[in-house]
Amino acid sequence: MKKSILFLFLCLTLAGCSNKNEIQSRETIREIIVVSVETVPKEVKQNEEILIQAQITQGKETVTDADDMKFEIWKEGVPSEDHEEIKGELNKEEGTYFVKKTFNEPGLYYIIAHVTARGMHNMPQVELEVPE
Predict the structure, then answer these.
(1) 45-70: pLDDT as tens digits
(2) Is the bond leading into 41 cis (omega within 30 degrees of zero)?
């Protein structure tokens, strides 16, 4: 009899704990991070330095505490082992992450912003045409 009561007590205790965890996890659900990538200036010219920048937001808040932020850049047709990866620097005044880059050859380039922030990962890809 004592074993049955003890077993029932343990089951009720565990059920109560799982319900409490479920309520806590619902409360901690946050909005996803959104990453927007752009170049400054918008029109890229061969052999001229530009800024590639990423604006990271979560809801209406600007994210300036990313755990990791890097740009992966490569020209069309280049194998993945030859992609360039550059760590983004934080511009505290504007709340953006950026790198400076010069494209010496014309062609189609791809840029992926790899962002890990607030327990989430986002990696948007953009295309960039460098004219002759």
Answers:
(1) 999 999 999 999 999 999 999 999 99
(2) yes
